[in-house]
UniProtKB/TrEMBL annotation:
GO molecular-function terms, A-Z: 3'-5'-RNA exonuclease activity; nucleic acid binding; nucleotide binding
Residues annotated as domain HRDC: 266-346
The protein's name in its UniProt record: Protein RRP6-like 3 isoform X5
InterPro entries with a match to the protein in the record: 3'-5'_exonuclease_dom (IPR002562), HRDC-like_sf (IPR010997), HRDC_dom (IPR002121), HRDC_dom_sf (IPR044876), RNaseH-like_sf (IPR012337), RNaseH_sf (IPR036397), Rrp6-like (IPR045092), Rrp6p-like_exo (IPR049559)
PROSITE patterns: HRDC
Region (Disordered) residue spans: 735-765
A single BP term in Gene Ontology: exonucleolytic trimming to generate mature 3'-end of 5.8S rRNA from tricistronic rRNA transcript (SSU-rRNA, 5.8S rRNA, LSU-rRNA)
Pfam family, any one: DNA_pol_A_exo1
Amino acid sequence: MRLVTAEIFELVENPRLEFSFIDGIVDSEISEEYTWVETVSQLKELLDVLIKERVFAVDTEQHSLRSFLGFTALIQISTRKEDYLVDTIALHDSMGVLRPVFAEPSICKVFHGADNDVLWLQRDFHIYVVNLFDTAKACDLLSKPQKSLAYLLETYCGVTTNKLLQREDWRQRPLSKEMVQYARIDAHYLLYIANCLITELKQQGTEISCPDDKFDFVLEASRRSNMTCLQLYAKEVEAFPGESAASSLTSRHLNGQGAVSSVYFKTEFQDLVMRLCAWRDIMARVHDESLRYVLSDQAIVALADRPPMTLAEICRTITQADLNVDLSFNSLLPSPSSVVCSHLDDVHTLLQDNISNLNDIFPMILQKCLGSSGSCPLSILNYALLVNCNLKVSLVSKQNMVKSSKQVARKTSRELFVQKFSCKTPVYHNCKIFANDGRLLCYCDRRKLEWYLHRELAKLVDDNPPAIMLLFEPKGRPEDEDNDFYIQSKKNICVCCGEGNHYLRYRIIPSCYRIHFPEHLKSHRSHDIVLLCVDCHEVAHSAAEKYKKQIAAEFGIPLFVSKVVDSKEVQVISGSSESATNDEEVGVPPLQLRTAAMALLRHGPRMPSKRREELMQIVMRYYGGREITGADLEAALLVGMSPHERRRLKKKKGISFKHSAGSILPNMQNNVGCTETSSIVDASEVGILNSSDSTKAEACNGQQEFRKADDDVGDSTIGADSGVDEVNYTFKDSLKSDTHGASNRKGDCIGNSDDNYESRGPSNGTVELNHKKYDGTAQSKHNSKLSLLGHGPHGKQVVNHLLKEYGEDGVRQFCQRWRQVFVEALQPRFLPAGWDVMHSGRRDFGEFSVYNPANKALDLVKS
Ligand code: AMP
Ligand code: MN
Ligand code: ZN
């Protein structure tokens, strides 16, 4: 294989095309004669013919209904003179005879839409194709209105073909007359069609290319074709049987129903679909049948939708579901299938709602089928199933189903949550970047491809999915640097549980730390940002919050800024603190201040006077005990906020304060609403005092926080990170207990527990900040770009400490600790291959990388 790859790369680099392989007029008429190849000696004769050709056409037919993996049942090969139909069932064990011609670089193989054929030839016969010309790729390049073979046959040869025959049972022998005809047509005209397309490609080349830019369309078509040959067949491995089928079935079904009608329905339905898909997957393997044969998708949906109670009902439901769909094709299949009929009790058991542990059920079912007195054939193929029966499931059992209305509300809220925060489009585009030697450098998103193409640093070599080849020599290759992670395609699923219907990004290294990392250590986002479903996200988030507390204790750096005071009063306070003033009375935790001010602004007039007085005291403590006005209250709202948070608050204000405008407190009506601008400026100057009282501040910990940032995940080695702003969304989880009473409505709390840092935007003013453990002095200057409401200041101090004490290795080890925390909390089962807790993040940055410090400066100049 290594050799073949090298040869394909050679072809990709220097397409070898003396494409005069069909000279003059090609007879597009199909004769009566063809050669049926079914013995080894006939196969060898065919080899002798083919080895003398410079080009031949190939197509394959496969059978997939009564086989788990599917198999190639027929190979059609056409030379200029003759059509051969190779019985690959009879010759299965001898097909290796043809390996040399298929791998011979000097002989061109013409296919139409070779993607599947190339993989099937590998899967069944270890035949690798070198030097492919794919007429479908040529169609792409020529921007043909259609690229189906039927279209080409019609257009170039005036031949119509009945594509329905492609679904025939290609195992049958002898093949019917129509099937022989169909099979021959699929290969017979390909040489002629290829010739026509090549002529057009040559024309296109001379018409479009300007003299100094010689784009050779023929070579490009050949190159794109040969890229197809680089695919390698691999069996799909699922952590839990039937998982991907279950998730696509559920999402298709639920989408088809429009809105999610009932929260109960969804969970129970999902659960049943998952069980049935798992059972179907295992049974299909055991009996070597296709999934479709064992149990159709529509039957699974019907069973899960209204679980039947009796064996007879189960059969009826399946039959009915199969009748309703795709009559022409499926009416030939037994419904229910023989597999269902012989395992009806298992299906029945699975549909029961009292299964508490599916981990026990599947091994039991397998044992029953394959065990010592099992009912099903035990073969080498399914023996492995029994041995490696490692079925871990964590399904919601119906007994644990929520019943109370409060919990239903929770579910509904979760749905909203999912809708609002999950990624709306797949995160990973899995576009590829190849080095100029054809080696895969990384997977990335479309934007990155465009970045290179725009700068003419690369050329497009494939478009579905898009792939580019760099025109410069990149620094290193991921494999050589032990960075295999970057050359794995990534699935759009929760890396923990495999959920594929919704997911959102999760940052393994909390942003409050990461944003303070040196730039080049930040560039490994694709490794440390993963996709998680909402449920797993919540688990990960709370584990991270817990670990932050541990870090805070370990480093002696509190999570929250403990107290702030109005800096105009600072001198008064520090002067008097020497003497009698109780430290407790000075300053106030920023979140407590905000909460109190917000409550007063919103509900002041309607509050019991005792409560109002308490809250006033809190705000007054910030202002050094002096009387306060409505303007002071508004100003207090903004204390500790980053400019970004302030802008958001301003935007929201119109809505939030509508009902309280003009009557916040009985005695301050006149002041309200006229000091917005000045208060923003004032609020940026505050003094922060240190103390360990952060209980109130932690109230904001309860909120979940989700962010959207479209650029992060597709990032990788030779990054073109364009540094797009992150948009932060905070979400007060309305389900969590409401510790702030009236003041803590959803959305009130803008400061979030993690990343209140605004990386752009002007700095207005400084904030005074006191952390005794660090500088020992009463106050320290602090850039007000950093929000004081979240963990920003903590994160900054931790990172500075790490860098000072241990340098960059300290930061790397810190990252490793967070990955460990993540892995321990979630036990993720779907992390991309190559993902590693110890990921070093050590990379060299090439000439064109934006992480290259020189380019960073350049980009700044440009923008
Ligand atoms: P073709 O590329 O048209 O020669 O198709 C090759 C094989 O792909 C067929 O023998 C089928 O096994 C499979 N196939 C292609 N399209 C379909 C389809 N629409 N439905 C079922 N099987 C298909
Ligand atoms: Mn075909
Ligand atoms: Zn999950």
